[in-house]
Amino acid sequence: MAFKVLVVDDSSFYRRRVKDILNEDRSLEVVGEAANGGEAVEKVKALRPDVVTMDVEMPLMDGIEAVKRIMAECPVSIIMFSSLTHEGATATLDALEAGAVDFLPKRFEDIAKDRSDAATLLRTKVRLLARRAPVASLRPRPTPRPASLLKKAPPQPAKPTRSMPANAPKSTFVRSSTLLSGSKDTAEPVVVSQVQRSGKRYRCLAIGASTGGPVALQKVLTHLPARFPFPIFLIQHMPGTFTHAFAERLNQHCQIRVKEAEHGEVVQAGCAYLAPGGKQMEVEKRAGHTYIVIKEVNSSDIGYKPSVDITFNSLSKIYGGDTLAVILTGMGADGREGCRTLKSLGAKVWAQDKDSSVVYGMPQAVTVDRLAEVNIDINDIGECIKTEMS
Fold it and tell me: Alpha carbon 372 to chain centroid distance?
């Protein structure tokens, strides 16, 4: 049976365009259309689609209000279509905060140079999101969850990973559940809700994310204290016009300072540097200081701008094994090779667990290759970072 999709846009031409693209995939079926947010709310209740594609700007009820109503009354995975402007970025972030799980530029030319590639990406995203449960639980809390609410269980040592250096400090974890892979060649993740500090030396925290990342990053970073003792490097797959607005939003919600990274600035503890969209973020050491390096890389070999792998590999040259690398929800496998390099130097790697991921692609990639020491629910990652790195 095909996954059901509802297409919402005030333009009949655009609805028809999206419908034609999705219906090319036999596993997808557009079961309805809506011209405004009010119609969308009613049709979600009536048709029970697996995924909704939603325009941001519409008459009568806009996409943001529609997302709020849908997530409150009949939760479903929602992909927003947005213009690549500052206003569009702000509105899209509002929609993600309200419960939407992903977004795409409304102009297909902004998704990919080749229109067929853009259409393929849209179908892929819809298929992936259709396979997962509704995402109402991913809406961010206004305040961090108190440590007292974390699950309790007797502590026990984590399973050693194949590539763990012999002299690496061992952490103790509290196990909450185990995810079965269903595949003979897939590692069985150790899923935990708490950690006991390992005593390992750290000099930086690095976090990579893609689909579902904006909400996930906010959940993690709001747990960190203002005087967090290390610099934080954030890589979120996002267009260049979005990252500045996203950094500003995170900065408003977090105790730590969050900013879009700028070329040539000195890296400081307690500050989170968000890689600019459409570019690559690296670091370099000069005269006893670490500096941010922002590069324009146009190579067709690099699929993501920014790329988690590129930033993680650069961090490995400066911080080596004194790094905690965390891979959050996202499509694909970006970050796997960067984590492989970091882990070979003694770094710790954690991944978001399957149940709390919008898409388990990136976390699964580092888990299957036995690079991630543990999988952790998104609601617990921030507290675990605080415990491990305090």
Answer: 16
Q: Going from the first residue of the chain to its last (390 residues), give the mean pLDDT of each consecutive group of 10, the final group possibly shorter.
A: 95 95 95 97 97 94 96 96 85 94 83 79 93 55 36 39 41 41 54 92 98 96 97 96 95 97 98 96 96 86 89 98 98 97 98 96 97 97 96
Q: pTM, whole model, 2 decimals?
A: 0.85
Active site residue 289: no
Per the annotation, the verdict on 334 as an active-site residue is: yes
CA dist., res. 90 & res. 267, Å (int):
27
Catalytic residue among 82, 83, 198, 210: 210
The two structure tokens encoding residue 21: 């693209």
* Per annotation, catalytic residue among 50, 102, 334, 380: 334
Contact yes or no for 103/212 (Cβ under 8 A): no
Active site residue 210: yes
- Asked if 68 and 95 count as a contact pair (C-beta separation under 8 A), the reply is no
CA distance 81 to 11: 12
| Sign of the dihedral defined by the CA atoms of residues 38, 39, 42, 44, in that order | negative
- Count of other CB atoms within 10 angstroms of residue 78: 30
Check 9, 77, 171, 237 and give the catalytic one: 237
Given strand 156-157, what is the order of strands in its sheet?
156-157, 172-178, 190-196, 374-376, 348-352, 323-327, 204-209, 232-236, 271-274, 257-260
How far is 172 from 232, CA to CA, in rounded Å?
24
